[in-house]
């Protein structure tokens, strides 16, 4: 365990680190973050005795740092600096063996069999065995950094101090190095203390973070306790968005620029709609933030092409997404720009609604058929299949939606669709109960993220009430078109 109490120190007459106290547990991966000039590197130099403390103490295993000899300290603590641009012409093996100096005795300090065994082990551990005879100047930056990690591990330390270890490395080498360090922390109880500039990487790998500003601790805790929007904006003096990682519990952040190159004029109107027997298309000049259940572009993303593709009601395909991607390619629409759905509904039966109220434009497009009508309460009695959606609902909004507004908007639209099915008397043919939709309906909400702030979209809010009314009317009209057409076929 490392215990730091009232640490103060720096250069000249003014302290860079001022009255800092914290503890680091054994086996912990501990990150130090903060803006340039916040005192991160000075903190490390004080911890490793490179510069003297003005005040306070550093305890390693309850023993003050100053009571360790240089060799004793080297057996406890190893350092991995930022990648070194200059180096002597040693090979990999020789460089790693230098990490054993703290254990070597005698005037000539020849390596022992134990030294050789340790070096062999860390070379294997870091994947360097095959390049053990390679000169350092023949290695890539990432490979050299692995060599220096192996050198530090050859010291067999309990604590590893890293000063921006991934600086100048591309992301694949960053990941490899940090994966190795995390594994060592988990399996060998190695205590890893590292400075990070990249908050996202720090959040992914660290058990706890220490956020510094102006030589003092601003916050210390788990990543989710430190990665707070208001806190980071105050410390970094920048507009920042903090959001959940899609696969891990570690929060992530994005910098938000204070400029916009895109025009702020209105872009939504019914004239954008292109309808043929084959597909319904809307193309916008700006990318829209979109939340959808589409085959292509599902989930959150930014898109400008929106496609609703018609297939036969008996359509059956093992890979409908791949088919949809091939169609997009035929139409010259790139996957990264496109949201695409399928429907068995007759596309000319579509319905559209458009409104402009309180500086907010809303465009709704619905295609609907009732052939696959289902009561959701009894949906488990149906076979799961890849049949195309029958009711597809598009909601376009000129405004700035919160993430909860996207989700609330989906819920509100679904309630409105179900109301339309009820009013039209559509039944599940298997149960003869009122249907709530069809078996594979799809929905999307797309927003310009400019203009009025729209935080909520529940049914009694301004946005939610408009979505509810317009989706209900459009769905009801599209169903009525479908029913009328079926009477004449």
Automatic annotation (TrEMBL):
The keyword Translocase applies. It comes from the Bacteria. Residues 2-239 form the ABC transporter domain. The keyword Translocase applies. GO terms for molecular function: ATP binding; ATP hydrolysis activity. Gene3D superfamilies: P-loop containing nucleotide triphosphate hydrolases (3.40.50.300). InterPro entries: AAA+_ATPase, ABC_transporter-like_ATP-bd, AdoCbi_amidolase, P-loop_NTPase. It holds the Pfam family CbiZ. This is ABC transporter ATP-binding protein.
């Amino acid at each position: 365990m490392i215990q730091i109490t009232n640490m103060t120190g720096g250069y000249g007459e003014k302290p860079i680190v001022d009255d800092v106290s914290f503890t680091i547990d054994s086996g912990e991966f501990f990150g130090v973050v903060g803006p340039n000039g916040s005192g991160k590197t000075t903190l490390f130099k004080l911890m490793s005795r490179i510069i003297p403390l003005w005040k306070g103490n550093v305890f390693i295993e309850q023993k003050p740092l100053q009571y360790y000899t240089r060799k004793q300290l080297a057996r406890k603590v190893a350092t991995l600096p930022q990648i070194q641009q200059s180096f002597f012409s040693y090979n990999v093996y020789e460089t790693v063996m230098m990490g054993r100096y703290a254990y070597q005795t005698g005037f000539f300090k020849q390596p022992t069999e134990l030294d050789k065994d340790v070096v062999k082990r860390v070379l294997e551990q870091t994947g360097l065995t095959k390049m053990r005879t390679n000169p350092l100047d023949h290695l890539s930056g990432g490979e050299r950094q692995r060599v220096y990690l192996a050198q530090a591990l050859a010291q067999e330390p309990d604590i590893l101090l890293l000063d921006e270890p991934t600086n100048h490395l591309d992301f694949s080498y960053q990941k490899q190095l940090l994966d190795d360090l995390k594994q060592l922390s988990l399996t060998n109880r190695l205590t890893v203390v590292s400075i990070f500039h990249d908050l996202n990487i720090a959040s992914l790998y660290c058990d706890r973070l220490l956020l510094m500003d102006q030589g003092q601790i601003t916050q210390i805790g788990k990543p989710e306790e430190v990665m707070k929007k208001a806190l980071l904006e105050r410390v970094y003096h920048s507009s920042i968005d903090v959001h959940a990682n899609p696969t891990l519990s570690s929060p992530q952040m994005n910098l938000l620029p204070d400029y916009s190159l895109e025009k702020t004029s209105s872009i939504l109107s019914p004239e954008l709609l292109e309808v043929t027997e084959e597909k319904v298309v809307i193309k916008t000049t700006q990318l829209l933030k979109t939340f959808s259940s589409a085959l292509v572009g599902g989930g959150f993303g930014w898109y400008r092409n929106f496609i609703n593709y018609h297939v036969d009601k008996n359509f059956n395909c093992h890979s409908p997404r791949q088919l949809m991607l091939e169609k997009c390619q035929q139409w010259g629409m790139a996957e990264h720009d496109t949201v695409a759905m399928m429907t068995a509904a007759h596309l000319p039966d579509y319905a559209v609604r458009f409104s402009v109220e309180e500086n907010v434009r809303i465009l709704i497009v619905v295609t609907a058929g009732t052939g696959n009508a289902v009561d959701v309460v009894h949906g488990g009695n149906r076979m799961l299949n890849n049949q195309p959606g029958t009711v597809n609902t598009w909601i376009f909004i000129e405004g700035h939606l919160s993430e909860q507004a996207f989700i609330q908007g989906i819920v509100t639209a679904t309630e409105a669709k179900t109301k339309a099915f009820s009013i039209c008397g559509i039944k599940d043919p298997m149960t003869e109960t009122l249907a709530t939709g069809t078996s594979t309906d799809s929905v999307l909400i797309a927003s310009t993220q400019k203009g009025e702030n729209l935080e909520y979209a529940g049914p009694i809010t301004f946005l939610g009430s408009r979505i509810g009314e317009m989706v209900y009317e459009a769905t009801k009209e599209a169903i009525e078109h479908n029913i009328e057409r079926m009477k004449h076929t």
